[in-house]
Amino acid sequence: MSSSRTAPVPDAELAVRIDAVEARMTAACERSGRDRSEVRLVAVTKTHPPVRNEALLEHGIDEQAESRVQDLVGKARRGDGVTWHLVGRLQRNKARDVVGLAALIHSVDRRSLADTVARRASAAGVSQEVLVQVNVGGDPSKAGCPVDEAIDLVGHARAHDDLRVRGLMTIPPAPPADVDPNEHARPHFARLAELRDAARDRWPEVEQLSMGMSADLEAAIESGATIVRLGTALLGPRQDPPWEPR
Ligand SMILES: *Cc1c(COP(=O)(O)O)cnc(C)c1O
Questions:
Q1: For a pocket test of ligand 1, which of 25, 66, 67 has the largest count of ligand atoms closer than 8 A to its C-beta?
Q2: Which protein residue's CA is at the shortest distance from atom 5 of ligand 1?
Q3: Among 7, 15, 223, 227, which is least packed by CB within 10 angstroms?
Q4: Taking the model in full, what pTM does it have?
């Protein structure tokens, strides 16, 4: 059999990192009485070249994310068995590019964006799954809607026929240098879980909690995360200069 695509270089370090991540996730699940199958691992591959996406896929990690639309489009165009997630800020004028291509858009944080994504989904004849991003820490440098507007935004977004709001997402404020990232993030994750519970009481399909990154996945899982988004723990430091689609 011949293939025009070069096989990925075997990446021994990747296998070691995946094992370490699995051990951390399993331990956090055990501590909180949860089953490992309740938590989806999404690999955040921003800045890394497509060969690393292929390597992750070979290890069975088929849910992968980018934070910029153009990177997601550039990688997804190559076509392979990846289920794509968009985890970064989305501009309304880029919604058309990502609707239908990303299985889950984690970053719907305002009504106008929900409306645009819904319109693009209708035009494309797809039903788009999204999460509402909440700025639980009220951190002005972070995206996400304010906590006290989150339930309203879920209600607004889910009223569109072609949007399916599956849950909430957050990025907690960065911890100060001398503070344990897990302990710093824990109250913010608890806040998002409470909001999700309130939303789910009204709308049972709002069940996902996308929270937890490389430094704080333990607190996230112990607080009920159903999706963790991991970059550095799987792939090491971001590539510099970053990979850019041609
Ligand atoms: C980059 C990124 C991640 C992964 O961060 P790590 O600390 O490298 O695990 C997760 N979520 C979002 C939204 C990101 O932009």
A1: 67
A2: 231
A3: 7
A4: 0.95
